Amino acid sequence: MKIDKTYEGSFHIVGGDFSRAGEASTELKTIMLSVGIEDEVVRRVAIATFEAEMNIIIYTPAGILRYSISPGEIRIIAEDMGPGIEDIELAMQKGYSTAPDWVREMGWGAGMGLPNMKKNADIFRIDSVVGEGTTVEMIIKP
Amino acid sequence: MRLKEIIRLLDAVVITNSRDSEAEIEWACATDLMSDVLYYSRGNSVLITGLAKQQAIRTSDIADIKVVVFTRGKEPDRQTIELSQKKKITLLITPYSMFTACGKLYEEGLRCCPE
Fold first, then answer.
1. Which residues, including other chains, have CB under 8 Å from residue A35's CB and lie 6 or more apart?
2. Residues of A with CB under 8 A from a CB of B
3. Which chain B residue has its CA at the smallest distance from A27's CA?
4. How many CB atoms neighbour CB B50 within 10 A?
5. Cβ distance B67 to B89 under 8 Å?
C-alpha cells in the first residue's frame, strides 16, 4: 500500500431501500482505488462492505458504515439499529438465513453474508443485542 | 475465452459493451444468488444469471466481474442497462437456459471460478 495518511468517512444506510443498495460500497471502492490501494485488497474490502450494507438494508431500519483507510490496514465498522441476532453462531453458518421471500427474489438471503464478511476480513468481530442492534467490525490488511 | 467467443457460443444479443471483443475472460460463475457471486467468484469472470436486475450489475461491479449474461432471453429494465453502461460491464442476453448456456461454454473450455 502506497498511502501515507489515513482517510476516514461514513455512509448512512436506509433500511429497505433496494434502489440504492450497494451505492455506499461502490463509492468506498472508488475511494480506495483513487488513493492507490491494490486491486485485490479493494475487492476484498468491497465485498465485505457490500455484504454488510446489504444486511443493513435487508434486516434493519437504518445503519451506518464507517471506514478508515490507513497505511497498514483498512477498517470497516457497520452499526445498525436492527432487531439484533439471537444466535450468532447459527447466523455464521453458511446457508442459514432468516430473509423473507421478497429479499430472496432480489437475489439475496442465501445465508452467505456473514460467512463472506469473515472470509474477506483478516479480523472479524460481531456484537449483537436483540432489540438494539448489531455491530460488525472488519479489519483488512494488505 | 475471448468475449467474442462467448457472444457467439451463446447466440447472445449485446446490450452494452465498452470492451474489446478480443478481451480474454478467465472464469465463469453461474448463479442467481448474489452472495454466491461474492463468495465464490474471481475477478475477470463472466456471470451467467437469471436475475435480470440491477442487483446483478451492482454485485458484478463490486466483484470485478466484467461480463454479465442474462439467460432465457430475459430483458433488463432501463435502470439495469444504464447501470451496466456506467460501470462498464458488458451486458449480454442469451436465449438459452442457464444449464444450456453453461454447457456450451464448458464444452469450449471455459471453467468455473476456482475456490
1. A3, A7, A69
2. 18-19, 21-22, 25-26, 29, 39, 43, 46-47, 50-51, 106-108, 110-113, 115-116, 119
3. B62
4. 17
5. yes
| Residue A57, C-alpha cell as written in the block | 438494508
Structural domains present in chain A: 7-140 (3.30.565.10)
ipTM: 0.87
Q: Decide if A47 and B58 are in contact by the 8 Å CB cutoff.
A: no
State CA B10 to chain mean position distance.
11
Q: Based on the structure, what is the number of domains in chain B? A: 1
Give dist(CA A43, CA B63) in Å, integer.
6
Cβ contact A57:A109 at 8 Å: no
Chain B CA closest to residue A18:
B55
Q: Provide, as residue numbers in chain A, all residues whose Cβ is less than 8 Å from the Cβ of B53.
A: 106-107
C-alpha grid cell, residue B44: 475477470
The partner residue sitting opposite B43, judged by closest CB among A43, A113, A115, is A43
Dist CA B97 CA A15 (whole Å): 34
What are the pLDDT digits (tens) for B8-25? 999 999 999 988 999 999
In a domain, B40, yes or no: yes
Which chain B residue's Cα is nearest to A50? B62
Inter-chain residue contact B34 with A107, CB threshold 8 Å:
yes
The C-alpha atoms of residue A15 and residue A136 are separated, in whole angstroms, by 16
Is the pTM for the entire model greater than 0.95? no
